[in-house]
Design goal:
Elements lengths: L1 H11 L12 E10 L3 H11 L5 E3 L2 E5 L5 E5 L11 E8 L2 H10 L6 E4 L2 E5 L5 E6 L4 H4 L12 E7 L3 H11 L3 E6 L9 E5 L6 E5 L8 H7 L1 E6 L2 H10 L10 E3 L5 E6 L5 E6 L24
Parallel strand pairs: 1-4, 5-8, 9-12, 13-16
Antiparallel strand pairs: 1-5, 2-3, 3-4, 6-7, 7-8, 9-13, 10-11, 11-12, 14-15, 15-16
Length: about 300
């Protein structure tokens, strides 16, 4: 009995009690953006990209598959004139345990846990939402849109100014893993840094060197999300079927990571990057260090 009491006393001391473990973080749940032109946003996300709109809690949801979606805020107006990204979100297998885990690492909730979601701020103030898998019923139970130009979000990216501080959060606390890094020139390899989720193939992309005051267009290029496709020609065909307007609808290019890309911009200059799942040539700057996504990954 004395031994049991002694063990209980020891476990109650600060630093000796068992720390909560991090539950799996399996992929991207959603990316959230402001719009200043709801009608034009609906035409872009609903008609051009071909996603079915759902409405809830003052925002529009566009399901991409049963666990991933795009969120568009029609109100309130954007708090900054040049920034449209409002949040990025990732799926976890146990949202309650993840909240406890982050609190144990002195990361306090900024958005309280409700309906299977809670939010924190990363070191640069970006809102990061964590979502219990299948908790968003409008998405989990919805039918796939026959006009969708993609069925998979494979990465999100946003402006980062202090890589070391962000690494302390994303890599050391959350367990994200290096995937690839590069830049527009072979000797500038730190413009884009990709980190895969701990338990999947989706990734987060640091967009470095944005400068102190990027324009709306510059910020929209960097604060973006990417739709995965097996073959870019299929995306081009789907965009043509959906009456995509402008030269960007067919303008494909080879990315520095060796993957074929196509870039579109929504009415608020947010970039949507279509990207093939796997590279077709060697990447510049650094090798890939993780598995490439596929259409049938666990996050679908």
């Amino acid at each position: 009995m004395k031994r049991i009491l002694l063990l209980a006393c020891l476990l109650s001391l600060p630093g000796l009690a068992q720390q909560p473990t991090r539950p799996p973080i399996t992929g991207i749940a959603f990316a959230r953006f402001y719009t200043t032109d709801p009608a034009a946003a609906q035409k872009f996300y609903g008609s051009t990209l071909g996603f079915e709109r759902k409405e809830t809690d003052g925002m529009w949801l566009y399901p991409v598959n049963h666990t991933q979606w795009i969120e568009v805020l029609t109100t309130p107006p954007p708090p900054q004139p040049n920034i449209r990204m409002a949040a990025v979100a990732f799926t976890t297998e146990d949202v309650v345990q993840l909240e406890h885990y982050l609190e144990a690492h002195n990361v306090k909730p900024d958005v309280p846990l409700k309906n299977g979601q809670f939010g924190v701020r990363d070191p640069e103030g970006n809102l990061v939402i964590f979502v219990q898998r299948n908790s968003e019923k409008l998405v989990a139970t919805g039918l796939a849109s026959p006009l969708a130009t993609s069925t998979r979000i494979i990465h999100v990216g946003f402006i980062v100014t202090d890589r070391d501080k962000e690494d302390a959060f994303w890599q050391k606390i959350l367990g994200f893993r290096p995937y690839w890094h590069g830049g527009p020139k072979d000797d500038s390899v730190d413009n884009w840094v990709s980190l895969q989720v701990p338990n999947g193939t989706d990734w987060l992309e640091y967009m470095l060197n944005a400068g102190p005051d990027p324009s709306l267009r510059q910020a929209g290029v960097m604060d973006h999300f990417s739709l995965g496709v097996s073959r870019m020609n299929d995306a081009v065909t789907a965009l043509a079927r959906n009456h995509c307007e402008g030269p960007n609808c067919t303008k494909t290019q080879m990315g520095r990571d060796g993957k074929v890309q196509l870039n579109l911009f929504d009415p608020d200059q947010t970039r949507v990057e279509f990207m093939e799942f796997a590279p077709t040539q060697e990447p510049c700057c650094s090798p890939f260090t993780g598995k490439h996504p596929t259409p049938g990954d666990q996050n679908n």
